[in-house]
Structure formats: structure tokens, C-alpha cells
Design goal:
This protein is of the alpha+beta class and 362 residues long. Helix content is 34%, strand content 23%. Helix 3 packs across helix 5 and helix 4 packs across helix 5.
Amino acid sequence: MPTPTVFRSPAAEPGERGLLLGRTFPDRIRATCDFYDTLFAATGAAPGEVRELALTALAHIGAAAPAVAEEIDGIARGARLPVERIAALNARTEILGRFGRQHPECSTVVHAPADGRPPVTTQTWDWHDDMGDGWFVWHIEHPDGRSVRTVTEYGIVGKIGVNAAGLGLHFNILAHASDGAASPEGWLPVHVLARHVLDTCESLDEAVRLAMATPVAASSSLTLAAFEDGRARAGTVELSPSAPALLEPGADGYLLRTNHFVDPTLATGEALATEDPDTCHRLAALHTRTAARPTPDAPALLDTLTHHLADGAALCCHADPAAELGRRWETLATVSIDVVSSRLLVHAGGPCTAHATQWTVV
């Protein structure tokens, strides 16, 4: 499998940081824009509609997270692209949710033991196979000493990540009946919210408060993990335009995520599992497979996720080359978070190819 590209941004102001990224990877950023333009069109979104929603998103980002807005502007200048195209990348979940439904297959496993050990975490990131070389690991240094490491797509400011305070964040797309309806005032794109949490929060409680207080126009879940005062902590914030909800680990210490709402109230508006029950099959498989691993380490979580469609649920996903655009799902990356050392462990590919491979540690 290929080694993930790692890009370290030296301490710089947001606009300069974005400019450097854009100048370093203009072709990959353009290719990402072109892919999403094709995907947007496939959902029925007209270019003018995409541009309008992207500029609305950029205005909201400028109000809620101005440093991120400056970074997006810098990326656009560096890649020599209109800023609305980079804004559209960062609002791609909102645009796709407005005009069409995606069926991603990301699976997340977090274990927060009660015996004083730190949490262990792993997730798969499943997305379109066309984006196999459209992502990288970004190590961001802020001038004031803060840092963020994130696995993300070229031109998108964040996704899965960890910051210097030891706050880890896993990311799963969801879908709700309120997606694409009248958006709440001041909404923030979910990928931008993930980055904003990592940029500004130093504790799990602070991250939960920020995530739950931020309006969104599309659904996702942010699964947070930390090791605070000698105690493993974890929680998932389920986000939807109608309301957020907080989920905590079960009595066994596990917090398991696929791509549907678990909160009973939000589950009444579930819009993905009704179309694609695989998310429910994957969550059931995770419950079964974690039950056999009561005190897991990182390799045990990897074993948990090494499970395919032929086994009953696609925790590790391989694309069907005959499928049409928008239906070819592949596990592009497997990511673990070490919250003690504030590092990401990243494998390009699925869990089934990660066992005998040297992981990239950032």
C-alpha cells in the first residue's frame, strides 16, 4: 500500500499557512475540486447552486472561525482557484446532503477503560475510490504553540485528528430528515467544526460544549477521546440541523459508531439506515466483535475492524469496480489516535492490509 503524504505547516498566520498548502499541492487540490464538481453534478446540483451555498458557508465560517476562513482564502490563492471552490470543498457534506444522499461506510471503535489506562481508538475512513490519492496528513503548527494533526482531503481544513492538548476526534457522516431543509442561522460546515474544535479546545468537556452549541446544516458525529487526570474519557456528539445529542461509552467502556443516529430522539429522523441497512449491520458486528475483547489494545481494535461484507458486514470496505460513480466505496485510510502522545497512526488502506504494514506516525 502507498505511504500517506504528510505535510507539516511551519508556524504561520492562517492565510500564510493556507497559501503554502495551496502552492505545494495545487494539482491535487484542483483534482479534488474537479471530483466534487462531478459528484455535485451527479446529485443534481447546478453550478450556481453550489457556488451560492459555498459562499454562504464561507460567510458563516468567517463569523464563527475567522482564522479558518483566512486559511481557506490562502489555500485558494495558493492553488490559483476562486475561493468559492475551496469553500465548496469544505461544505461538501452540506452540498451533498442538500441535493443527494451519500452512503459512506466509516466505522469507529473507541475504548475508554476504567482502570486508569488511556483510551484506545481506531476508525476506518470509507469514501469514494476515486479519492484514493485525494487525502493526506496535515501537521499544523500555530504561532502560539498550539498544534493539530489531521487526516483530511486536499483543500479541506480538517477531519479526523488530535491536538497538542491530547484531544482526539473521530468523524462519521450521518443523515437526518432535517438535512437539506431550512438551515439554522449561522451554521458551520461539519468538517470546519471538526477543525475548529481541534484548534480551540483543550478538554473533552470544552469540545462537547462547542460542538453542541454550534448550528449545522448537515448531520455527522464527532467522537471525542482524551486522557485527563489519569482517567480515560470519551463521548460522541451526534449533530443534526434539528438538534445535537451526546452519547457516552457503555458499561464495557466501548463507544461504537457507524453511520446512523443512536440517540433515541434523533433516531426518529434517521435518513440513512432506512435506505442502506448496512450501517446497522456494521454496528451489530462491532457489538459482537468487541464483546470478545473486554480489555483491548490497539491491535485488538484493528482485529475488530478486520471484517468484510462476505463476513456479514463491511467494516473493512472494498470497492466494486463495476459500480457507478458515487457507489464505489473503499476504505481509504485506517486511523488510530494516541491521545497521550498527541499523535496519529495512519495506514493507507483498510484494516485487512494494516496488520503487517508499517504505520505512518505523525
